[in-house]
């Protein structure tokens, strides 16, 4: 048996895919496929093959298409039929649908399966399972190379951030009249300490003794004699040495209040929105559990351009079960009718101890052994996970659409007005309770413009690692809001990427996953249960 080519055509003869296993030109393949249609139209016999004077066509109808095996006339027809059957199985397993677009989208997977089946024109003795295994095999070297590339990208991004901060420091130092960036960074420490050291080097022995005591953290004797507590004396010394005007300029100052301007947050009020690396995360408060508690937790990621165009989106979810009553531990969850567990757009994955056949066939989540109970220790157990990815300009997984408008500030030189316009997707059923915008700039010169603040926006914190944290009010489905902030920045790219942090504790799942009922795994009697759902963002950025 020698396989010359395998092709997929429509019933009307339109070629869609073809893989040649011998040295055959494209024009020759098109000629052979055209000849196949003529032979098929003139044939009155009900066979699955036709022949001409040069080749044999072994074919099989597949919905509105033909899968055609082109061999020579000396090929074994029995082996040809077996090979054609393998091809039909691989095509069927690779397609997500039966349209021409689905065939084109899965073209590489189909062609790779053809290459695994045929080698140098001869069929390999492989089953469909073996072909899938070969196609799914990963290359260790490729994974190592991908890790190296990701590390390089991460290092490059960190280097860009470091250089951006350095440029900002130099620009602020230039405005203050300080040429040395290092002296500007420690203007209260480096410059002032040098000035005091220079002064006290020529002062009296008593003054030098007092200065050395202050540097070592001790309270000078002259202060102790007034009977002030040591902590208060140290605070007075700190104020004495830091409230002087920096050398060479007025230093950083918080802008005073003006019309339509919100006073910025003081430096001493800065705080971090997220838990810093190395710090212990606060324990999540457990919700009330009346026996069986089902939690639907979803995390959404998105990348949105500055003009509001959706570039990519991803949804990840987990269904957790908590049981605190041993009498209810023999449970089985029945999903709602609107849940399509066979939807290939979602990548559902059940816990290894969950009956996967029952999940796919009857949309139930129960243990493989119905005689065994779920753990009743009131601890969350993830029984189902899912993931869905969407591409550009697809809004299915976007609960909040965001666009930004930038323009130079007319009030403060060297600042930029950033206007945020956002809207909750009308397809999203729920209210976004917690919403914040994180601008990656560390500066005190920032305020919300009161004349354009429909969102009740306020600067919550200014953090050195995360930048400016702006909190806005809650917003419901289908509603929109606008607010504008003025930020000191040398260039627009310094303000991006802007991270959007959203959270909703009573969200309607984006996956529309619902629990219809919870029944006993032994007698199918209904059991009482509660359901809570949450939605939060992970990497929801405007770039």
TrEMBL record:
<dbReference type="GO" id="GO:0030126">
    <property type="term" value="C:COPI vesicle coat"/>
</dbReference>
<keyword id="KW-0175">Coiled coil</keyword>
<protein>
    <recommendedName>
        <fullName>Coatomer subunit delta</fullName>
    </recommendedName>
</protein>
<dbReference type="GO" id="GO:0006888">
    <property type="term" value="P:endoplasmic reticulum to Golgi vesicle-mediated transport"/>
</dbReference>
<dbReference type="GO" id="GO:0006890">
    <property type="term" value="P:retrograde vesicle-mediated transport, Golgi to endoplasmic reticulum"/>
</dbReference>
<dbReference type="InterPro" id="IPR036168">
    <property type="entry name" value="AP2_Mu_C_sf"/>
</dbReference>
<feature type="coiled-coil region">
    <location>
        <begin position="137"/>
        <end position="174"/>
    </location>
</feature>
<keyword id="KW-0653">Protein transport</keyword>
<comment type="function">
    <text>The coatomer is a cytosolic protein complex that binds to dilysine motifs and reversibly associates with Golgi non-clathrin-coated vesicles, which further mediate biosynthetic protein transport from the ER, via the Golgi up to the trans Golgi network. Coatomer complex is required for budding from Golgi membranes, and is essential for the retrograde Golgi-to-ER transport of dilysine-tagged proteins.</text>
</comment>
<dbReference type="Pfam" id="PF01217">
    <property type="entry name" value="Clat_adaptor_s"/>
</dbReference>
<keyword id="KW-0813">Transport</keyword>
<dbReference type="GO" id="GO:0000139">
    <property type="term" value="C:Golgi membrane"/>
</dbReference>
<comment type="similarity">
    <text>Belongs to the adaptor complexes medium subunit family. Delta-COP subfamily.</text>
</comment>
<keyword id="KW-0333">Golgi apparatus</keyword>
<keyword id="KW-0963">Cytoplasm</keyword>
<feature type="compositionally biased region" description="Polar residues">
    <location>
        <begin position="206"/>
        <end position="220"/>
    </location>
</feature>
<dbReference type="InterPro" id="IPR028565">
    <property type="entry name" value="MHD"/>
</dbReference>
<dbReference type="InterPro" id="IPR011012">
    <property type="entry name" value="Longin-like_dom_sf"/>
</dbReference>
<dbReference type="Pfam" id="PF00928">
    <property type="entry name" value="Adap_comp_sub"/>
</dbReference>
<dbReference type="GO" id="GO:0051645">
    <property type="term" value="P:Golgi localization"/>
</dbReference>
<comment type="subunit">
    <text>Oligomeric complex that consists of at least the alpha, beta, beta', gamma, delta, epsilon and zeta subunits.</text>
</comment>
<keyword id="KW-0472">Membrane</keyword>
<feature type="region of interest" description="Disordered">
    <location>
        <begin position="206"/>
        <end position="287"/>
    </location>
</feature>
<dbReference type="InterPro" id="IPR027059">
    <property type="entry name" value="Coatomer_dsu"/>
</dbReference>
<dbReference type="InterPro" id="IPR022775">
    <property type="entry name" value="AP_mu_sigma_su"/>
</dbReference>
<feature type="compositionally biased region" description="Basic and acidic residues">
    <location>
        <begin position="259"/>
        <end position="269"/>
    </location>
</feature>
<keyword id="KW-0968">Cytoplasmic vesicle</keyword>
<feature type="compositionally biased region" description="Low complexity">
    <location>
        <begin position="221"/>
        <end position="239"/>
    </location>
</feature>
<feature type="domain" description="MHD">
    <location>
        <begin position="289"/>
        <end position="543"/>
    </location>
</feature>
<dbReference type="GO" id="GO:0015031">
    <property type="term" value="P:protein transport"/>
</dbReference>
<keyword id="KW-0931">ER-Golgi transport</keyword>
């Amino acid at each position: 048996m020698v396989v010359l080519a395998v092709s997929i055509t429509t019933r009307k003869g339109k070629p869609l895919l073809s893989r040649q296993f011998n040295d055959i030109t494209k024009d020759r393949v098109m000629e052979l496929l055209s000849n196949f249609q003529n032979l098929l139209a003139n044939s009155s016999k009900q066979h699955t093959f036709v022949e001409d004077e040069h080749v044999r066509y072994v074919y099989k109808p597949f919905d509105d298409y033909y899968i055609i095996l082109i061999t020579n006339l000396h090929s074994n027809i029995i082996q040809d039929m077996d090979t054609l059957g393998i091809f039909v199985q691989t095509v069927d397993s690779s397609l997500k649908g039966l349209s021409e677009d689905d065939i084109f989208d899965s073209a590489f997977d189909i062609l790779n399966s053809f290459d695994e089946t045929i080698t140098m024109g001869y069929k390999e003795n492989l089953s469909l399972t073996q072909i899938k295994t070969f196609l799914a095999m990963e290359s260790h070297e490729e994974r190592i190379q991908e890790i190296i590339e990701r590390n390089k990208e991460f290092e490059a991004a960190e280097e860009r951030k470091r250089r951006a901060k350095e440029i900002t420091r130099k620009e602020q130092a230039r405005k203050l009249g300080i040429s040395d960036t290092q002296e500007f960074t420690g203007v209260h420490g480096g410059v002032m300490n040098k000035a005091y050291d220079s002064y006290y080097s020529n002062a009296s022995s008593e003054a030098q003794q007092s200065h050395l005591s202050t540097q070592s953290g001790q309270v000078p004797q002259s202060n102790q004699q007034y009977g002030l507590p040591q902590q208060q004396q140290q605070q007075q010394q700190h104020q004495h040495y830091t409230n002087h005007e920096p050398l060479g300029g007025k230093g950083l100052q918080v802008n005073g209040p003006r019309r339509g301007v919100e006073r910025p947050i003081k430096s001493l009020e800065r705080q971090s929105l997220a838990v810093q690396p190395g710090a212990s995360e606060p324990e999540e408060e457990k919700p009330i559990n009346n026996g069986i508690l089902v939690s639907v937790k979803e995390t959404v990621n998105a990348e949105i351009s500055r003009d509001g165009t959706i570039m990519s989106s991803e949804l990840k979810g987990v269904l957790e079960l908590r049981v605190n009553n041993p009498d209810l531990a023999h449970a089985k969850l029945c999903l709602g009718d609107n849940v399509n567990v066979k939807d290939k757009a979602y990548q559902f994955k059940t816990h290894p101890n969950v009956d996967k056949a029952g999940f796919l066939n009857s949309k139930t989540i129960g243990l493989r052994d119905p005689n065994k109970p779920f753990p009743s220790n009131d601890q969350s157990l993830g029984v189902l996970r899912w993931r869905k990815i969407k591409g550009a300009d697809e809004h299915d997984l976007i609960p909040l659409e965001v666009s930004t408008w930038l323009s130079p500030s007319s009030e403060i030189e060297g600042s930029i007005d950033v206007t945020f316009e956002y809207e909750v997707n009308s397809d999203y059923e729920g209210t976004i309770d917690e919403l914040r915008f994180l601008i990656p700039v560390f500066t005190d010169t920032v305020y919300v413009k009161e004349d354009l603040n429909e969102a009740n926006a306020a600067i919550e914190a200014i953090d050195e690692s995360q930048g400016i944290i702006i909190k806005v009010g809650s917003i419901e489905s289908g509603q929109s809001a606008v607010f504008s902030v003025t930020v000191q920045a040398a260039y627009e790219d310094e303000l991006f990427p802007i991270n959007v942090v959203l959270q909703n504790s009573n969200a309607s799942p984006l996956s529309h996953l619902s629990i219809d009922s919870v029944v006993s795994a032994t007698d199918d009697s209904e059991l009482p249960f509660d359901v809570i759902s949450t939605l939060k963002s992970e990497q929801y950025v405007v770039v």
